[in-house]
Amino acid sequence: MSAPSLSLLDLEEDSRVCLEAEDYQRRPGKWCSGCGDFGALNAVKRLLAKEQLKPEKMVFVSGIGCSSRFPHYVNAYGFHGIHGRALPLATGIKLARPELDVFVVMGDGDCTSIGAGHWIHATRYNANMVVLMLDNSIYGLTKNQTSPTTPEGYASMTSPRGSLLPALDPLQATLGVSNASFVAQTADWVPAHLYATLQAAYAHPGFSFVRILQRCPKFTPDIFEQRVKDPNTTELLVHEDGVDPPGLEKLFKARRVHDPKNIDEARSLARRTDMLRLGVFFRDDSRPVYEEVRAVPPVTPQEKINRLNQEFERYAV
Amino acid sequence: MSTEATREATVTEVSEHTVEIITDSGEGAQKCAQIFGQTCAKMGNGVWTVEIIPAEIEPPHHTVTSTSGNIIRFGTGKVTNWGDQSKLALAFNEQVLLSRHRLDSLDDDCIVLLEAMWQNHEEEAVRRQYQEAMEEMSSRNYRFIGVPIEEETLKVVSNPAHGKNMFALGLLTEVYQRDLSIVEKQIAHIFRFKSQQVIDLNVELVKAGMAWARDNLDFRFHIPSVPSEEDRIVMNGNQAAALGAIAAGMEMCAMYPITPATSVSHELAEVIENYGGIVHQAEDEIAAAGVAIGASYGGKVALTVTSGPGMALKTEFLALAIMTEVPLVVLDVQRGGPSTGLPTKVEQSDLLSSIYGQPGDAPRVVIAPRSIEECFHSMVTARRIAETFRTVVIVLTDANLATGVQQFTRPKLDVRWQQGPLDLSPLPEGLRPYEWDAQTGMSRRVIPGTPGGQHTVTGLAHDEASLVSYHPSSNERGMRMRSRKLAVFQSTLMPPEIHGDEAGDLLVVGWGSTQGAIEEAVDRARAEGHKVSTCQLTFLSPLEPGLRKIFGRFRKVMTVEINYSDTVGDPYITEETRRYGQLAWLLRAHTLFDIDCWTSCPGQPLRPKHIYRNIIAKLERAESVEKEGEAS
Questions:
Q1: Looking at CA atoms only, how far is residue B271 from chain A in angstroms?
Q2: How many domains does chain B have?
Q3: Does residue B272 sit in the same domain as residue B207?
């Protein structure tokens, strides 16, 4: 692993210097062995290396939870915030500095429970950022409490006789929000698909919401057991405008060509529970992007003073 | 009560007058008063206005609870508060007038210009209600004059609901001999988004009001004005804060609507984009704080504007900003609490929660402007402190300052108040994001985009490299460094100025918007020979230096505040159990002096006469205690 503290000036001067995936790792992740978060981190590192993003031009924003430790492990700027509130911070950063690449990492509790209001509204703002929702269907850091995405009947410390309500479906919820522009689902046990999905998310100019299904090795290790064992219960949504990672054809026989522009079909697929579906459900790059809608021309300090002095005339005695 | 016939008017010259315009909610009293107040200010009078606003948009009409209006106190010299009582009231019905009577807002000899249509209304219930109200008010010496406001308005427009206020403005314009050309300009400004036809019609109504007053009223008031040698501007506190934010170079205001703070964002929304900034209306109070912190972390100077309930919601985010040392300016336009409390009314109850309101120790700066002028300048000061010390600065104004209109010296803008371009030059090798100076706790702000500066800020306990650290000494060092910055900031402050003598029997201490009323009351007591002085604090966290020394020169110290405190002698309330006003609580802890307080939370600004009475009572109490002491 090369030293992460490389000089970026050298990088600019010497185009042959190329950052490897490992160059984007600031320090090793401190998650439990077998945690799905590692898979997400690896895929992100590969993406950053592929795009050759400058570490100082990226900000990783997170809330609270196991997955929210993510920014500490990436060689980039990071803002490890408070529970449920990563999205407002990220929105503020993007408004102030649209030229920065913003990545948001949240868990299922962070995003769909305490931060649910921000999730709905950030989807509508459609600021250009990649949003990773690391969904292991449980509160891990606080040690095994039911989250909104915990399957009905699944037991936890707060629902010892099993979760009483149907799980909240983040895909249907996101697809129901006006001005949603990118909704995808992938899984930690299909790394090629995860990586391809992140590439599509990064390429999309808008709020790219990616739900990453994963297992918590401590509290939900068995949650996708059937899916992992039997790939025939999973259907890949493929399209040239979505993702179709090479090499998965043999493993996943069930493939459906789905045009991500088709919102009705996307909603209908998200609602169906007969199979697990991975892929880009919806993508529309014509939706208004918040920081572009709000862009105002810069004004020099002296010009501001001149204008404010004029403004005072309205109030002059 | 009779409509008086045309006669020669006598002009009385007075140094000041207070007038209230009171109507049903939605009848346009605010517009009428706004134009009248602005006209007085532009004619060179000192002005202070107070809005009377119901919490509902349009409560049932012709009731005591539907009162909407405005009080305008104006005079030859500077006016710093709303005074004791109104000398003239212009009321659209007897019920709204009755509500003001019940609040003891009207002077005993108040002239009342009252809509004449209710007295002989065709409905018996209306007539009876009118009679009962008049009987209730007969205990006073009010001089009632019936004015056919609606009847006269109907001669100009078909819908009196949109017009009576301008006719009323005409009455006042004539009675107070205001300059019609200024009134016309104000009308043109206030209706600038409407057609010329609307503006002309409003001017016509004003002229009709003036004509009626000329023909029917036998009195005029003349309030001389002294020409000012300096340029002045006139606005309310929320407008001042909004323009102050622009003067301070702020390019991001993230907010969520809340009374009485919202109009700051209205003001900003109208103009801030001409200054390269935006107002972001967030999905909630919490998100508003988050967006502001995110923008500030990104390098912009950001502001969030709210009131008490919003402050409560933002608490966790404010602590995050303090922990991560992201500069942030928060404007809290205080209203009555707790809970939803009195949304449109004044109170000073957010002091302690602003200083201490979060889990853990999160030192931040709290400042309270004392006038409309300071609402402007405090934004510039706040931004500078926030950035210099990488901390949160809370500016506490209140509903009194927010809607009160006053003129002040036109600020001389300084280009250095604005933000220069972001410094994104590469960081020196090995510089850590919290390289706290061991003496001052201060460290360099590293903005994303800076090559070599990559780090992750976190609300978790962290070391100088911003690495999460639960080590005991590391945690204590972080605490110490964040707190040290406040001490360093305090070392730059001056002791408060004393209004009155430097020593005496009683020192009255206030904070924020009450300065004008307290000083007027203290001046009244001093004119009678009492040895009373006052000082008005503006820096509350950290407190201004030298307080112990100052307090030690007075036999008694007492705070005056618009918040709650127990009264000794009430059931269960003793010197031991008594809960103090918030500033008193703070000053007792800070100075170990036995500081008393007189507080009141009526949902309206303090009256000088009430403060005066309590000053005298405090002096008498102190004297009798001393005599008792001598006797025993």
A1: 9
A2: 3
A3: no
Give the residue carrying structure tokens 């579906």. A277
- Look up the CATH number of the domain holding residue B48: 3.40.920.10
Share of chain A above pLDDT 90, in %: 94
Residue among A77, A121, A301 whose CB faces B455 most closely: A77
Query: Which tokens is B98 given?
Result: 């009755």
CB–CB of A93/B298 below 8 Å?
A: yes
pLDDT over 90 at B401, yes or no: yes
Let me know whether B266 and B360 are in one domain: yes
Chain A residue numbers touching B412 (CB-CB < 8 A): none
Residue B545 lies in a domain: yes
- In the prediction, which pLDDT does B419 show? 86
Q: Please tell me the predicted confidence (pLDDT) of residue A4.
A: 42
The residue segments making up the domain with residue B354 are 241-417
**CB burial class (10 A; 0-12, 13-18, 19+) of residue B148?**
middle
User: Do B174 and B261 lie in a common domain?
Assistant: no
B322's CB contacts (< 8 A; 6+ apart) are B362, B363, B364, B391, B392, B482
**Phi-psi map region of B449: left, alpha, beta (phi>0 left; psi -120 to 50 alpha):** left
Domains (range + CATH), chain A: 20-313 (3.40.50.970)
**Contact between chains at A82 and B320 (C-beta distance less than 8 A):** yes
Q: Taking a C-beta distance cutoff of 8 angstroms, is the pair B122, B84 a contact?
A: no
Strands of B53-181, DSSP E: 67-75, 86-91, 106-115, 143-147
Residue B242 token pair: 């909004």
Q: What is the pLDDT of residue A1?
A: 35
B347 falls within a domain: yes
The label of the residue with tokens 């600065």 reads: B393
- The pLDDT of residue B632 is 66
pTM score of the predicted model: 0.95
* Listed residues B402, B417, B432: the one ending a domain: B417
Q: Decide: B558 and B597 in contact? Cβ < 8 Å.
A: yes
Q: How confident is the model at residue A6 (pLDDT cuts 50, 70, 90)?
A: very low
Prior bond of A4 cis (ω within 30°): no
Contacts of B320 in chain A (CB under 8 A): 81-82
In this prediction the ipTM stands at: 0.95
Q: What is the tens place of the pLDDT at every residue in A273-305?
A: 999 999 999 999 999 999 999 999 999 999 999
Copy the structure tokens of residue B334. Answer: 């205080």
Of residues B278, B426, B448, nearest to A97 (C-beta): B448
* Segment B481-490, tens digit of pLDDT: 999 999 999 9
Instruction: Considering only CA atoms, give the Rg of chain B.
Output: 27
What is the C-alpha separation between B609 and B588, in angstroms, rounded? 26
